[in-house]
Design goal:
The protein is α/β, with parallel strands linked by helices. The protein has helices at 3-26, 35-51, 95-98, 113-132, 158-166, 214-226, 266-280, 306-322, 337-342, 367-383, and strands at residues 55-61, 64-73, 80-86, 102-104, 107-109, 141-147, 170-173, 182-187, 189-198, 236-244, 254-263, 290-299, 327-331, 347-348, 355-356, 364-366. The strands form 4 sheets. Strands 1-2-6-3-7-14 form a 6-stranded mixed beta sheet, with helices on both faces. A hairpin with a 2-residue loop joins strand 4 (102-104) and strand 5. Helix 1 (3-26) crosses helix 10 (367-383) and helix 8 (306-322) crosses helix 10. The structure holds zinc ion (ZN). Zinc ion binds at residues 86, 115-116, 150, 175.
């Protein structure tokens, strides 16, 4: 039995307990805007962390759940480890009653089951196992962070995550592992731009010429904005929302457009944003319409640092020993790991169990991967002592 197969056996023994806690938290509605639900999930995890000897701090945010920081000082000469998780989901109130946690064979499903409730539960148990073995004395410290607003881009949490990252030597992020074992070693930058047009309302029958259409002004921007994208190079500009107007027979006086931006790195993202701004702020065909511009890049790119490559190589070795698939993924989506990586902290993401159809109503987790990915995570944590 190698060290990693021994850790997998330990995870296997805890699987019933992990599934029970996953069921408990999946069945709590905790969409990013549901502060009470997010806090109820955090209560469960904070309780376990306290029991493991962590000092838990919670900072309430207006309209959101708490920011939870759990710290454990181990006093060794090894690394200061930062583990990043989140308690919120993309789902609305009432979802758990309609789509509760369920297990069918080797699959579990439910809202946020793989993004990322089971993932945090798996990580907590992996750390508890290592601590119970007295196996982490070489680490300097562990900081376990639970973010309440990750699914909306962590707008209120970025500065806090960056502060914690500056005090870390290594960051492990618990976003789901991709099908076939994809771990995330890099991410692109993600941006959001909001355009608001103000025109002049008028009845189309009696006073059409007095009106200035806000919808027409924004609709004219859709094609030129989307043409800025070049998907093979990782640049994408996509209009996700275009809406406006109040009645069929009234020239629309207001409209809004929401544009999603993706870029492979921060420099190309900034260049794309400048092009977007130039198009958006060009005088509209009807000069009586004004357009206001808001937004920018919210998540920086996550560069594949040398330290990240080293972490991935370690994980790859563990996966080989366990006979499970692994491959490196550079994602177009952002995560909180992007904030740490951008500050130069070696970061590996996608360390949760294997999750399929993430953030859809069909989201499900491969149960056996809770055991194996939990062992890989435990192996990475134990290795940070050197
Ligand atoms: Zn997530």
């Amino acid at each position: 039995m190698t060290e990693i197969t021994r850790l997998a056996a330990g995870m296997e023994a805890m699987l019933p307990e992990i599934l029970a806690m996953s069921e408990r938290v999946v069945n709590i509605d905790s969409g990013s805007y549901l502060a009470d639900g997010v806090n109820a999930v955090i209560d469960v995890w904070a309780g376990m962390l306290t029991g493991m000897g962590f000092t838990v701090e919670r900072k309430p945010l207006p309209g959101r759940g708490d920011q939870m920081t759990a710290r454990l000082s181990l006093g060794g000469n090894g690394k200061r480890l930062l583990v990043l998780g989140h308690a919120d989901t993309v789902w609305p109130a009432g979802i758990a009653a309609e789509w509760p946690f369920a297990r069918e064979g080797d699959r579990i499903t439910g809202p946020g089951v793989g993004d990322m409730k089971t993932n945090v539960v798996m990580a907590l148990h992996a750390i508890r196992m290592l601590l119970a073995e007295g196996a982490l004395g070489g680490l300097a410290s562990i900081t376990f962070v639970i973010v309440p607003d990750e699914e909306i881009g962590s707008p209120q949490s970025r500065a806090w995550i960056e502060d914690e990252s500056r005090n870390a030597d290594l960051c492990l992020t618990l976003e789901p592992c991709r099908p076939e074992g994809g771990m995330v070693v890099g991410r692109g930058a993600v941006g959001a731009v909001y355009l608001t047009a103000t025109g002049i309302t008028a009845h189309v029958g009696s006073a059409r010429e007095k009106g200035a259409s806000a919808i027409a002004a924004l609709a004219a921007l859709v094609a030129p904005l989307e043409a800025l994208g070049d998907p093979p190079s990782g640049l994408c500009a996509t209009v996700g929302i275009l809406r406006g107007g109040e009645a069929r027979q009234v020239v629309p006086g207001s409209a809004e457009l929401h544009l999603d931006l993706r870029a492979p790195d921060d420099a190309s993202g900034e260049a794309l944003l400048e092009e977007v701004r130039a198009i958006a702020l060009r005088p509209p065909a009807d000069a009586r319409v004004s357009i206001a511009f808001r937004g920018g890049f919210t998540r920086p790119a996550f560069p594949t640092l040398d330290g990240t490559k080293a972490l991935y190589a370690l994980a790859e070795g563990f996966c080989a020993e366990l006979g499970i698939p692994v491959h490196a993924v550079v994602s177009r989506g952002g995560s909180d790991g992007s904030f740490a990586a951008r500050l130069g902290v070696p970061t590996l993401d996608g360390l949760g169990p294997i999750t399929h159809e993430t953030c859809s109503r069909r989201e499900w987790v491969e149960v056996p991967s809770i055991v194996t990915r939990g062992a890989v995570l435990a192996g990475l944590i134990a290795s940070a002592q050197g």
